[in-house]
Design a protein that fits this description.
This protein is mostly helical and 342 residues long. The chain is built from twelve helices and six strands. The protein has two domains: 105 residues, Winged helix-like DNA-binding domain superfamily/Winged helix DNA-binding domain (Arc Repressor Mutant, subunit A), CATH 1.10.10.10; 231 residues, no CATH class.
Length: 342
């Protein structure tokens, strides 16, 4: 005899615990709570996966695992009956004590979980910025420097600036995705990422231009801003959605998707005339020629005399892929951690 205790989140058989992860327990609680009634696939997606985009295979695997743990047989079901193309029905007799408290999965996502996801994405963005900052810092430090200007100083300045911008981008994009993911529906994280990137991009550009005008008296030009933030945020949102569909597969599949979507976003920005971090630094170098900031060495890697068109396209693509991988991978890992500890 099985006993389901939703309050303690435990399934036992004859007093011995039956092992189920958090997501599968929620699915069983929902089925038991609706005993005898059809539970549609959409309800599983909304109340168990809470709008996280997953494939039908994830639900099939969930039901398969539940049947295995219950000792059920799909061909001759005693517990879970399949209603082809529609969903599933719990057909076993359920005691009233179990039914009354079932279905905790209908509860909303706690805001602390949303904050945890956003924080994870921000950290991922910061890590991506650190890696990118090292590349730009090393490239800048390898140029001939003015007397008394150490290579370490150039490296540290470019590293700090790149990390700061990446962290701010991570805050906007990750927060937008995390907040949008609270809503039922598959594609909200795309809109959330785009909106979060647009807002934080506008803030970064406004503050950057205002600071230069205030301190130096002139603007550095069309540095990265809301357009770039919106495109990269949307790309990260797409990666988050697609990675959810691949949740049951190998982790490297999700990382590859995050890199590919982010890279596509970065390439789109550069192709349409926008500027990622490398392009913005090059604008600063040309607007303030006495600054000693140069990325010519990067251009030389691609056969260009300076930081030309090819350099901008390639570095924007790499930046987007790195940022997408950092933010989305960190958020998916955080999501899995929440599910395993729920």
């Amino acid at each position: 005899m099985f006993t389901l205790d939703p309050a303690d989140r435990q399934l036992t058989r004859g007093g011995a615990p039956v092992e189920l992860n958090a997501r599968y327990f929620d699915a069983l609680a929902l089925l038991v709570g609706e005993q005898g009634r059809l539970v549609s696939k959409d309800r599983f997606m909304d109340e168990v996966w809470r709008g996280i985009p997953v494939t039908d295979e994830a639900l099939t695997q969930c039901i398969r695992t539940l049947r295995k743990q219950l000792g059920d047989d799909a061909a001759r079901p005693r517990f879970i009956e399949t209603v082809p193309k529609h969903g599933y029905r719990f057909i076993a007799t359920v005691g009233s004590s179990a039914v009354g408290e079932a279905a905790p999965s209908a509860q909303g996502v706690p805001w602390r979980d949303t904050l945890f996801l956003a924080s994870a994405g921000t950290i991922g963005g910061g890590i991506a910025g650190f890696i990118g900052g090292l590349v730009y810092g090393l490239a800048g430090a390898s140029q001939p420097l003015a007397p008394g200007m150490g290579a370490v100083s150039v490296l540290l300045v470019l590293l700090c600036v790149t990390v700061l911008v990446a962290v701010m981008g991570g805050i906007g994009v990750a927060s937008g995705i995390a907040i949008a993911a609270r809503r039922p529906g598959t594609y909200w994280p795309i809109a959330g990422g785009a909106l979060g990137g647009l807002v934080i991009g506008a803030v970064v550009k406004f503050l950057g231009l205002d600071a230069f005008n205030l301190l130096i008296g002139r603007s550095p030009g069309d540095i990265t801003g809301p357009f770039e933030g919106c495109v990269i945020g949307a790309a990260a949102g797409i990666a988050y959605v697609v990675a959810g569909w691949l949740e049951a597969g190998p982790r490297w599949h999700r990382i590859a998707i995050a890199i590919a979507c982010g890279a596509a976003g970065g390439l789109t920005v550069a192709a349409l005339g926008g500027h990622m971090m490398g392009g913005s630094l090059d604008l600063l170098a040309h607007q303030f020629p006495d600054s000693r900031l140069r990325l010519d060495r990067l251009g030389a890697w691609f056969g260009e005399a300076g930081f030309g068109r090819i350099s901008q396209l390639v570095t924007a693509t790499l930046e987007g892929g790195l940022f997408g991988a950092g933010v989305v991978t960190a958020m998916r890992l955080a999501r899995r951690n929440l599910e395993e500890n729920r």
